[in-house]
């Protein structure tokens, strides 16, 4: 069976192209995110997997949960239902966000540090990353004291490990080689 992301790709691309052509990237991003969250709920998964519930009822449930859907959003849910793809909403939303970020030349960066970063430190990191990645940067921070010091940066598929824990692990690996 094909990987879920492969199956979700044409739907994400179609939704993205439609939203882009209509100037509604933000609205579709919100709608797909909400639908993805709804479909990820265990109770909704049970409903979607229940063969005793008709496809029309499943569509109505998703539309009721995602009350902000416009007519085109409802049609998208209906189309996914007709081909049995409602459970793919999380993958579709994820790929849509990737296409949206690429279009907008932005990247979400997750910075994990051993201690809370000041706003000045966040600004300096954002400026450095913006130069390196040639994109607008949206930062999310979190604290993980097990890093001991330094930061661990995730930007898309790029990982920069400047943590003390990471450096100690590299040192230990080099000494054991």
TrEMBL record:
Membrane topology (UniProt): Peripheral membrane protein
Pfam annotation, one family: OSCP
Listed GO CC annotations: plasma membrane; proton-transporting ATP synthase complex
Localization (cell): Cell membrane; Membrane
Subcellular location, principal: membrane
GO molecular function, one term: proton-transporting ATP synthase activity, rotational mechanism
This protein's name: ATP synthase subunit delta
Organism for this UniProt entry: Oceanospirillum linum
């Amino acid at each position: 069976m094909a990987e879920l992301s492969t199956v979700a790709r044409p739907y994400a691309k179609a939704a993205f192209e439609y939203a882009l052509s209509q100037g509604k990237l933000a609205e579709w991003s919100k709608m797909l995110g909400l639908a993805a969250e709804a479909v990820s709920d265990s109770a909704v998964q049970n409903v979607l997997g229940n063969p005793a519930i008709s496809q029309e009822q499943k569509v109505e449930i998703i539309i009721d949960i995602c009350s902000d859907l416009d007519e085109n959003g409802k049609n998208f849910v209906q189309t996914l239902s007709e081909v049995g793809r409602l459970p793919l909403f999380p993958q579709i939303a994820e790929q849509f966000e990737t296409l949206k970020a690429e279009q907008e030349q932005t990247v979400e960066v997750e910075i994990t540090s051993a201690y809370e970063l000041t706003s000045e430190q966040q600004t300096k990191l954002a400026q450095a990353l913006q130069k390196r990645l040639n994109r607008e940067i949206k930062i999310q921070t979190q604290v993980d004291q097990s890093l001991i010091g330094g930061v661990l940066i995730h930007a898309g598929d790029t990982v920069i490990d400047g943590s003390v824990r990471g450096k100690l692990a590299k040192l230990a690996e080099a000494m054991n080689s």
